[in-house]
Structure formats: structure tokens, C-alpha cells
Amino acid sequence: MNILSATNPLVVFDLDQTLLNKQSQLSAYTLATLRALDKSGIRYTIATGRSHLSAAPVLKAHQFPLPHIYTNGVLTWCPNEKRFSFNHCLNVEEGLAAVETMSSPQSTPFVSALDEQAQRYIFHGTMKNKAEKNLLQRLSKAEKVSLLPMAACRGNLHVTNISMLGPSVEIHEVNQKIKNEADLIAYSGKALTEEYRWIDVHHSAANKGAAVLNLKHQLGADSVICFGDGDNDTSMFDIADECYAPENAVPKIKAVSTAVIGHHDDDGVAQFLRERFELTV
């Protein structure tokens, strides 16, 4: 479909390295653009690899009224009804099996889970490196999150993802192990320091594309325009009518995009939106 002829598009944004600037914030320019989309009646939402917990601080500056897609499509949060839809979660047994696979000398997996009442839990073992200790300290300050030892991970919980932060060599090795697990998929990237990396593991059936397509049908949208920069955006690009990659995107995403737009730290997405929809700000 030609988006120019679409009358009811759904616009979907990745967050990090796409809609957010290098400070992981929504800039004043981007916020003004989102408000202009609201005035024009153009519907939009986010599809991110972040969890609901880690995305909450960066979304405080603006209300995104439509359902949000988190953890690469593992779950969807409806802000109006204040409830989660669990798309493709692991059960506790599967989650603990993943922890065993990821077990490493210098890194400890963190298991994120929710119960039927949407109570958040993070289970962990003994901290093995400084980065993990810093992460645990930050998590301990988060609201409405129960931090518990790994031994307490049991019962009828929805395991959304298993994450780990550690030496690059170890994380690369774990990534290779996960590739041999049919029901799991991993995404990894550089941490704040060069010698460390993060890895995030979840059910292989979960992806942004399927979640976006489901939301498109729910809303009765006639098309999808999406923006993303990384490997976890590939499935979203596959189902979109048009897909745009910021200048800083990985080569794979640029190659399959409709067009490459401005850098994420230069408000590339917002600049494109203002021109494309002739927004009055």
C-alpha cells in the first residue's frame, strides 16, 4: 500500500537509538512533534526491546495512549485499562532452564517475571561483577518490583525475559549457546564500558512484527509506518508498509528500509514526521 493514500495509518517507534536521543530521552523537539501528531489525529505507539519497567522513566515526559509493545513483543501494555497481554512468555521451568544454559563464571542471569495480577518480580543469583552489583542497586530502588533470590522463582509466573551483564567474551559465548535453543532467541549489545556487554533472552516466538500486526488489526489501521535501528526491528520492518531507519542504524536495517532518515541524536524521526505529515507545531 502507498502510505500517501492511507487514511488511517499506525505509526510505530522503536525507542533506543531511534526515537530517543543519546541521553535516552525524548527531546523537546520530539515531544513537540508527538503533540502535533495528536492534534492531527495520527495514531502512534512504541515497540521496544525494553521492559515496561526500564521504559517507564523515559516515557514519563509524554503520554502514549495506545497499547505499548515491550520486550520485543513478549507482552503488550494497555495504559488505559492498565493491564498486560502476555503474548509469548516462558513458564518458570523454561526460564530456569535458560538460566542454566546461560550460567557463566563471571556473570549472573536476572529473571524478569509477572504474575496474573501484573506484580513484577526479578529473581537473581549471587552477584559476580561490579556492573551487576550496580544494576541490582538500581533495581532495588524501582517501585512495585519484588527482588528475590533465584530459589524463589517458582509457581505460575509469566517469565518475560532473562538478562545478563558481563565480560564481552562470556556474553558472546552465551549468545552462541542460545542459538542452539529452538525456543529461545537472544539480542546482545555493548554496555556502557567497552569490555562489557548485555544480553537479553526471551521466547523465540515473540517478535515486534507479530505484536505490531496484532495491534494494527485491533485498531483497524489500514497501514503501518515503522521506525527502528537494530536487528530486533527486522520483523517489524517485514510487516510494515513503509519502514525508516535513522542514519545510525545497523547496515542490515538500512538495507531493507524504505529510506534512511536523520540521526537519532539529531531528532531524525521527528524531523521526518513533521515533513511527511505537514505537521503544525
UniProtKB/TrEMBL annotation:
<protein>
    <submittedName>
        <fullName>HAD-IIB family hydrolase</fullName>
    </submittedName>
</protein>
<keyword id="KW-0378">Hydrolase</keyword>
<dbReference type="InterPro" id="IPR006379">
    <property type="entry name" value="HAD-SF_hydro_IIB"/>
</dbReference>
<dbReference type="GO" id="GO:0005829">
    <property type="term" value="C:cytosol"/>
</dbReference>
<dbReference type="Pfam" id="PF08282">
    <property type="entry name" value="Hydrolase_3"/>
</dbReference>
<dbReference type="GO" id="GO:0000287">
    <property type="term" value="F:magnesium ion binding"/>
</dbReference>
<dbReference type="InterPro" id="IPR036412">
    <property type="entry name" value="HAD-like_sf"/>
</dbReference>
<dbReference type="GO" id="GO:0016791">
    <property type="term" value="F:phosphatase activity"/>
</dbReference>
<dbReference type="InterPro" id="IPR023214">
    <property type="entry name" value="HAD_sf"/>
</dbReference>
